[in-house]
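Protocol step 4 of 6: structure prediction from sequence.
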Amino acid sequence: MTLRRSLLVSAFSLLVAAPALADDRVDHFEGKPAETLEQAVRHLSEYSKQLESLVEGDLSNADMGEIHQITYTLENALAKLDTDLNELAETLEEVHIASETADKETVKQSGKTYLEVIETLQQLAD
């Protein structure tokens, strides 16, 4: 068999085997969605506590499965926080730029929007 033919056979084998290899992975879950900032913070608190209690002890295979599921919800919560905090940073930047240019209306509007989110975060932290 020539080198070229050998490489083609190998490449074809990988294409055929790839779906079978993917099936050997652990089932994936969606996790609980975090549609609001409040949900995201609540999920981070609740599911981080669950993760903490699991990783403190000896880990069984069942624990590993539970941790696998928990991480999906935590990832969803972090993604929501990331999105909301990026938006919050943009809003604060609007306030910053508007303050430099004496744009009082933008400072008032964007400032109120910023403060509403900060108030929500403060309430959740308490």
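Step 5 (inspection) to follow. The chain has a mean pLDDT of 83.
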